[in-house]
Structures are given as C-alpha cells and as structure tokens.
Amino acid sequence: MHIADVIARDGMTASFEFFPPKTDEAWDAFAASVHEFESLHPSFVSVTYGAGGSTRDRTDALVAKLQSSGSLRPVPHLTCVGHTEAEIDGILAGYAARGVSNILALRGDAPRGASGGEPGHFRHAADLVRAVRSFNEAGRHPHVRGFGIGVAGFPEGHPETPNTLVQMDHLRAKVAAGADFIITQLFFDNDAFFDWRDRCTLAGITVPVIAGLMPITSIAGLKRMAELAAGTRFPASLLRSIKRCEDSPEDVANVGIHWATEQARDLMDRGVAGIHFYTLNRSDATRRIYRTLGLQGRVGAQPAIR
Ligand SMILES: Cc1cc2nc3c(=O)[nH]c(=O)nc-3n(C[C@H](O)[C@H](O)[C@H](O)COP(=O)(O)OP(=O)(O)OC[C@H]3O[C@@H](n4cnc5c(N)ncnc54)[C@H](O)[C@@H]3O)c2cc1C
Predict the structure, then answer these.
(1) Phi then psi for 245, rounded to 5 degrees?
(2) Is the CB of residue 114 less than 8 Å from the CB of residue 143?
(3) pTM score, two decimals?
(4) Is 17 a catalytic site residue?
C-alpha cells in the first residue's frame, strides 16, 4: 500500500527509521529489538542506504527480512549519488519483485574525496524520482501504480542551498517529478516545522509531510545530530535543560525524551500527516514516547483534528 494511501486511510502515520546492522552481533541485538518495535504497530519502517551503495547488500537483506516477517512494512531509502542508471534499475527491479510498495528517493552525499560516480546522470534526487516514475510507467512493478515515492524535506534548510526560495523550488521539482510524500530532516522546533509546511503549501506542494523526530538520549548523540543534520537549530530552552543535568546521562536522556514527547504531542494536536522516529535501531526512547502519549497500537485511531 502506498504511504500516501495509508495517511488518507488512517489520518496520520507513525513510523521508524532503521539502519542495517554492520556485524553479526549487531544483527542479533537488532533482531531482539525488532520484536519491541513490532509491538508498537508502526505504519511503516524505513531502512537507510549508504550513499554510493556502501550498504547496498545489507540494506537489501534487512528489507527482505522485514518484508518476509509480514508485520512491518519496509520502505527502503535509495540514494542515487555514485550509481549508474543500470544499477538503479537493478535495485528497483529487485524491490519490485519482492513486492516492496514504496521507495524513499534521495540524492545522498558523496563520501569525502569521492568523485560522485557517473557525473551528469543522477545529480539530484529529482533525477532519481524521475527514474522511479519511468519504472512505474513502464509497468515493471506488480502493483498497477508502481512504487509510492517519498523524498526528503528540510524545514530548517539544506546546507548547500542557503537561498530558501530556491530550495523550495528544488523541493517542488521533486514533487512535480512524481514524489507523493515527504519525510523531513529531524528538528526540535515545531514552529519552524509548521512555518515551513505553510511555505510548502504556498509553493503549491500539497503532498503529505511526515515530520522527522529524533529524541536526544545523550550529549554525544546531540553532538552527532548537530554534525549530521547540519543547520538544525537547538532551542535555548532545550539546551538550558540539558546543561542543568549534563553530569547525569540518565537525566540528559529524560530531558531529551520529554522534549521529543512534547514535540510529538504538539505535532499530533496540530494535525501532522505523520511522525517518523529516527530510532538508531533502539526502541527504548520511542516506546517511552508511545506510552506517554497513549499511542501504543492506536495511531490509526487518532481523532481527526484537521
Ligand atoms: C528523511 C531523510 C532520510 C535520509 N536517508 C539517507 C540515507 O538513507 N542515506 C544517505 O546517504 N543519506 C540520507 N539522507 C541524507 C540526504 O541524502 C542528504 O541530506 C543529501 O544532502 C540531500 O538529499 P536530497 O535527497 O534532499 O537531495 P536533493 O533534493 O538532490 O537536494 C540536495 C541539494 O541540492 C540542491 N538541489 C536540488 N536540485 C537542484 C538543482 N536542480 N540545481 C541545483 N541545486 C539543486 C538542494 O537544494 C539541496 O541543497 C536522508 C535525509 C533525510 C531528510
């Protein structure tokens, strides 16, 4: 089922991001937490992809496992940077054969020092969206409408395009190319998200926007987020609370999870189309948020607010 259809049916989605574990031990640990994630009945789960194909086999293996488990609907991320047209086609054909219904189409970032692969073919995510759409239109997916196509959105801006009007043009180009939902970069300021969502609407972007949330669970994690999600603003009141208890890892996690819980509650109250939890494969923080919000297995039962 397409994610946009799930949102239309259920009013909103709650979903989780996983990454493919690197070692046998990490696979075992992850297998244990998958059961905990299953018990939360997410609308879908997404699986990251190493830009340039560095996790191609592991992403594929995890998507296959999740797909065969039947209880979690996997949405593979696919980045186009460094890939040839034939490689992308082969990856899409593999997912189609397995009955995967949605793809998150991304550009990815070329590893430092890499040439970026076949220059000129897939330069931006919109090029990949067009490739997925051509695949769909050629009738090569078992579902008559082919893959549902998601793309990334950046409420607080993407570092390569400081001009926010131009950046909105680039997002609109991805939707015009065929994307039917957007998942955002993580953010900590809901007003920034809603303001950006309003600007999307003003720009004529009307596909559902799923908000990306990542609870802070440690100071080291916060620093990693600042690096990976460059440009994300950490509100002073959040930093003040963390600073108060920075000598206690447990209290830092409590503050971070409480902040994410309040963000999720406010997003739902204000009619968000979905919340995507960046889980880092650990279920504790997400389970706490679910419990506090009374969400366990009840996402489709959201009273409509819009
Ligand atoms: C939800 C989500 C999931 C992600 N998952 C992964 C993952 O699994 N693996 C991974 O490696 N990375 C992942 N990323 C990171 C992402 O690949 C990077 O942030 C990347 O820099 C941007 O990807 P994009 O798909 O938005 O690219 P694009 O939409 O191509 O945008 C990239 C930059 O190019 C600019 N741009 C777009 N079109 C044009 C144009 N025509 N002319 C000039 N400039 C243009 C944009 O404004 C932007 O600054 C994810 C990000 C998000 C938000």
Answers:
(1) -125, 25
(2) no
(3) 0.96
(4) yes
The neighbour count for residue 203, using CB atoms within 10 Å, is 14
Cα of 242 vs centre of ligand 1, distance in Å, is 30
Is the CB of 107 within 6 Å of ligand 1?
Answer: yes
Q: Whose CA is closest to 125, among 139, 144, 109, 147?
A: 109
Q: Answer yes or no: is the C-beta of 101 below 6 A from any ligand 1 atom.
A: no
Which stretches within the chain are classed as H helix? 3-10, 24-38, 56-69, 85-97, 125-137, 164-177, 190-202, 219-228, 236-244, 249-269, 284-293
Protein residue closest via CA to atom 25 of ligand 1: 106
3-state secondary structure of 128: helix
The helix/strand/coil state of 233 is coil
Contacts by 169-173, CB closer than 8 A, 24 or more apart: 169/203, 170/124, 170/126, 171/200, 171/203, 171/205, 172/203, 172/204, 172/205, 173/124, 173/126
Q: Fold for domain 3-301? A: TIM Barrel (3.20.20)
187 CB less than 6 Å from ligand 1? no
CA 85 – ligand 1 centroid, Å = 18
User: 145 and 136 in contact (C-beta within 8 Å)?
Assistant: yes
The CA angle 17-20-22, to the nearest 5 degrees, is 140
Using CA atoms, how far apart are residues 55 and 61, in angstroms rounded to an integer? 10
CA of 37 relative to ligand 1 center, distance in Å: 27
Block mean pLDDT (10 aa), the chain, length 306: 96 96 92 91 96 91 91 95 95 96 95 57 95 98 97 97 97 98 98 98 98 98 95 97 98 98 97 97 95 78 45
Cα 109 to Cα 23, 49, 67, 159, 258: the distances in Å are: 24, 11, 27, 12, 32
Domain boundaries, the chain: 3-301
